[in-house]
Amino acid sequence: MSAPNKTYDPVEVAVLAPEEVQRMQAEALAAIAAATDLDALKAARIAHAGDRAPITLANAEIGALPPAARAEAGKRVGAARGAIREALGRRQAELEAERDQRVLVEEAVDVTLPWNRMPAGARHPVTTVGERLVDVFVNMGYEVAEGPEIEAEWYNFDALNFPPDHPARETQDTLFVAGPDPDQRSGLVLRTHTSPVQIRAMLTRPLPLYVVSPGKCFRADALDATHSPVFQQIECLAVDEGLTMADLRGAISAFVDVMFGAGLRTRLRPDFFPFTEPSADVSMECHVCRGESTKPGAEPCRVCRSQGWVEIAGCGMVNPRVLVACGIDPDRYSGFAFGLGIDRSVMIRDGVADIRELHEGDVRFSRAFGVEA
Ligand code: PHE
């Protein structure tokens, strides 16, 4: 049995030599001191205290020493590792404090700085389209006529030949501001259409009469993708001698040409409105597929739901009873009228699927239509 190797000198394990350990420690401390930010410190930590750091590898060599030599080498390496760990911890704290300080300065917001208080907005497409349509009719000799948004029930319904029990008057459809008073005078409503302006125009303006009336209308509808309690209509009224439905069609074509592009056909189908007789709904040839989607095997069209036609307006010849209510001789004069939703026309023209987009007031939506002065 051989005696313990008394002559074994731990210095012979080169990496455990005191000066080697000393050098590793010095290098580590220098690298730690040189780290000027947290990333650099992280790199120093990996290089000098990580699994593959010289001092870690040296530490693993201790087991190879004879038991007598282990304690001393272990103490030496342990002290060096402790010093490195301690330096890392101290530098980490310093750099974190420095970073926090810098963030406070660099990311500070000076709420007193002046800013651009007048960012360029954009006019709403419902406004610009409405104005353009008005211009078209003004160029054809029409005058702009406006009426109040809070309207007497008499103008909104009675004078327009709505019978007293007409369902449109029900509170589900009409927003009442005040009911009829005890003297049975007319109540007040938020106008449900622009047609009461027809009555105001016929009662106050000389004949012949050509007016265009844009404006807000209100109905007791909850806001969803296809309904809005507030919307805008534009309405045309002409009263003259000898007007016929041919004149009505001409006026409608002028509107369609401007709004959707020239050359689209229009179609009138019988409908009913109390204030026009005969009445019709107006459709135009689909401006997107031009009827192509109705052909067998064709791509479906989202805009006209492959019908080829899109309903855009209500129209008709002014009901003689309405003329009489306004003191106009129906044997001498006739009139035509048509009305349509501006919001709806913008939606059809520009493929806006959800009416809420028109009302949310997000300037990015309006900007997409171009900023018009
Ligand atoms: N006022 C009708 C509506 O709101 C539209 C219309 C106007 C119909 C003029 C005929 C003539 O639906």
Report a brief summary of the structure.
By secondary structure, the protein is of the alpha+beta class. It contains 12 helices and 10 strands.
Q: What count of helical segments does DSSP give? A: 12
CATH class of the largest domain, named Alpha Beta
Specify the CATH homologous superfamily of the largest domain: Bira Bifunctional Protein, Domain 2
- What would you say the CATH architecture of the largest domain is? 2-Layer Sandwich
Form type: rod-shaped
Which percent band covers the strand fraction? Answer: 15-25%
Q: How do the SSEs run, as a string of H and E?
A: HHHHHEEHEEHEEHEEEHEHHH
Task: Give the helix level as a range of percent.
Answer: 25-40%
CATH topology grouping of the largest domain: BirA Bifunctional Protein, domain 2
Q: What's the rounded overall pLDDT mean?
A: 90
3D structure, described in words:
This protein is an alpha+beta fold. The strands form two sheets. A seven-stranded mixed sheet has the order 1-5-6-10-9-8-7, with helices on both faces. The chain contains twelve helices and ten strands. The chain folds into two domains: 10-106; 125-367, BirA Bifunctional Protein, domain 2 (2-Layer Sandwich). Phenylalanine (PHE) binds at residues 193, 195, 235, 273, 276, 314-316, 337-339.
